[in-house]
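Q&A log
Question type: sequence-to-structure
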Amino acid sequence: MLEAHALAVVRAGRRLLDAVDLAARPGKTIVLVGPNGAGKSTLMKALAGEIHADEGRVTLDGADIRRLKPAVLAGRRAVLPQASALAFPFNIREIAGLGLSVPAFAIGRAAGEAMIDRALATVDLADRADRLYDQLSGGERQRAQLARVLVQLWAGETLNGPGTLLLDEPTAAQDLAHGLLVLDLAAAHAAGGGAAIVVLHDLNLAARYADHIAVLSEGKIYAEGKPIEVLSERLLAEVFAVALTPNAVPASGVPFALPQLARRL
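Response status: OK
Response body:
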């Protein structure tokens, strides 16, 4: 279990995160939502160990992640950031293979190649494995990086069991079908006993895929719980400055914030 305990991150005197508590439990998909600048990506970086908190701590199965060696941490969680830069002309297959580069992984050549094949097929890039990264569309680049993340996650699973998958805005560059594919992968990982934490802007997708949704506003958790309990008209107005038009709330009770159903306040 990956947990944030009273987490605070301060930069230039501004509290980007303030007293945030969050727990990613096995078998669950947590979705983080909130307006721009709310602290979602900062929280993901802190959970991943990319940045350290100024107050509070992040623990992985009870251990402070600051005390875990990078190779140990890499075997128990895998991260897809919003954007990834490459300095060398790798092709898609080589990018996916970087997921096996963690020193702690003792994966044989045949098993490693099978993982790469599986990952490329899973993200719908098997037929483009030899294509260079700089020849790809934005969505294809993101899925190539997702293949790398999946390989790392699966390799770590051979040592530690299902790990934690962190995805920061993984649907931003994807078309509709591939956006659903990415979120289906996160949900399947959680269903298999792992944990998934996903940052999304689309409240429709958040409501569909989240077992637990956490709404961030000005660096704090404004509300959290099941989507049907959290996504209210009042929350949309107070956090997102959006008002629903009449008859926009479906029978399920969850106000889907589709553009045609909402207007800015």
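Response note: Residues 232-265 form one domain.
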